[in-house]
Design goal:
The protein is about 60% helix and about 0% strand. It has about 260 residues and is mostly helical. It has a domain of about 170 residues. The chain is globular, with a radius of gyration of 18 Å.
Length: about 260
Amino acid sequence: MVVRFLVFALCFVILGLAEHISPRKKAPDKNLKRRFSNLMLIAIGSGIILFFVPAKAVSLAYMVRERGWALFSFLGVGPYWQVILSVVFFDLLIYFQHVLFHAVPALWRLHMVHHSDNHLDFTTGLRFHPVEILLSALLKAGAAAALGPPVTGVVAFEVILNAMSMFTHSNLALPERMDRFLRLLIVTPDMHRVHHSVIIKETNSNFGFNLSIWDRLFGTYKKLPKLGVLKTPIGLSQYQKDPPSDIKGLLILPFTGKPGTYSF
């Protein structure tokens, strides 16, 4: 928990400064309000997990390994490879979780809180409905119980996921050559920006949060948006004029909002 918070704080400061120095797009009016609401969502979600999900992924991974039930224990691979395989497996799991939240209409209603943001910056990477955060935590805990990955691997993945979620959503202008090089391995801000396009076919692409290989492997990779990176409208078509930005509106959006036709 301490390590994850320290990395979060470090990324928060670094990306905040980087966006100010080299922004990809100009920030909209009332930017402070939407940023505050995004941070409130992650605070509420984290609080729910802390109090209502005591058996988290790290705890379950430790318990399973202590009792000798760990699947990784029977694979015959060394501890370092177990950590690497854990990070890769959980990253693949989050990829499929993301696809699922776009595919199932009920889950899309939760996930559209994230997509309703009309401007991308690092706080968008924290803008998830508390129920979605809870469901994701339960999924990761279940996977940890089934596999028994090393605790170090689970912690490493959680830290990487948190940092990469902020990075991939950041309003950061990377040099084109650097972007091309980085996206061979990881998801870049411009690559993920395609996913936040209002165009449905583009929204349902580039699902990865960390490793870019999953989108290439499963045929969901799209290099560039049709209208170009800077001209592509961000968000949801039904909320272009009046996007929800206050915390109350975001919390009730899945139950009262218009889902559109984005889920497939």
